[in-house]
Amino acid sequence: MGTLGTVLSALLAFDAAAAASRYKRNAVLWAIIAVLLGSAYVFALIAIALLLSARYSPVAAALTVTAALVVTALVVIGVMAGLNARDRRLADERRRRSAMRTNLALVAVTSILRKQPLLGAATGIAVAALLGLSRGRKRSDDR
Question: Where, by residue number, does the polypeptide cross the bilayer (predicted)?
Fold first, then answer.
């Protein structure tokens, strides 16, 4: 039994080290990708400004690019606000369903207690476990 535990712990330690190595490598690669895409974005903005300044004045070209970026940022803010509102609605719905399940369980417990009073101790333990499990557990998407 001791050797099985040793082998399993060695396997788990190896997997954790490999996963940490992958995450570090991916983080570095994503950082490089972000820098390259940021540079490409800046040069694309410069190219657009130069193209517009050939046709219009440089000030008008700069203002046009600025206005386009502001409008794009406002659209992204609107999308983000909509997604946050949707997440709040879903979290509220999950809380309502959880409260409904708890209330139904309490109604069932009280009906059992009225019919069979000897099950009171077992029912009390079950209710305590139900309330402890439903309130003690936190999900990352409910925050």
Answer: 29-52, 59-83
